[in-house]
Amino acid sequence: MTQPPLKDIMIPAWIDGVLTPVEKLSVHQRGLRHKAISVFLLCDGEIMLQKRALGKYHTPGLWANAVCTHPLWDEQSMDTAKRRLTEELGIKNVDLTFRRTLEYRADVGEGLVEHEVVDLFTGAVARDVTIDLNAEEVSDIRWIGLQDLTAEIAASPDIFTPWLKIYMADYSESIIDLT
């Protein structure tokens, strides 16, 4: 499934305190505070990571949580999460749980900034869940335990997206219940 050109994607961002539809690339160029969603998929005490496709306009080739994206203008967060699970990973019919809303700001390279107000979701899936990677979005996936992920981020931080590092450093215990 091919995404529309960036200039055609309008996402919700705050301008002068008012939520406004703004072109996605412009949001990142201007560092505007904007809505986002993240999904963590869990299985048998492990977290699914996705490796972002090399063609992504920021943070290509870096490891991130299962889905991290922006709602379209007037799209509800849960709808975005389910849509992007299907569009990026080919995964359908996952029961997602809203965990929390959080905010962060991070330089993502090339003069672009993510200043996101994120609705974060988790979902449990079976190890043999059907996956059909969208090569324009994701180049690989893998499963990893929380302790191993924390150790790997400490040893090789440059292979992970800024937001995944923030999530693991500041929010992992409150968003990921692996018990």
Short note summarizing the structure:
The protein has one domain: Alpha-Beta Complex (Nucleoside Triphosphate Pyrophosphohydrolase), CATH 3.90.79. It contains five helices and nine strands. The strands form two sheets. Strands 3, 4, 5, 6, 7, 8 and 9 form a seven-stranded mixed β-sheet that branches.
- Rounded mean pLDDT score: 93
Radius of gyration: 15 Å
- Helix content, binned percent: 10-25%
Q: Please tally the helical runs, counting DSSP H or I stretches of 4 or more residues.
A: 5
Map the helices and strands.
Elements: E1 10-15, E2 18-23, H1 24-30, E3 33-43, E4 46-52, E5 63-65, E6 67-69, H2 77-89, E7 96-109, E8 112-124, E9 138-145, H3 146-155, H4 162-170, H5 172-175
Model description:
This protein is an alpha+beta fold. The chain has a single domain (8-172), classed as Alpha-Beta Complex (Nucleoside Triphosphate Pyrophosphohydrolase). 24% of the residues lie in helices and 40% in strands. The chain is built from five helices and nine strands. It has helices spanning 24-30, 77-89, 146-155, 162-170, 172-175; strands spanning 10-15, 18-23, 33-43, 46-52, 63-65, 67-69, 96-109, 112-124, 138-145. Strands 3, 4, 5, 6, 7, 8 and 9 form a seven-stranded mixed β-sheet that branches. A two-stranded antiparallel sheet has the order 1-2.
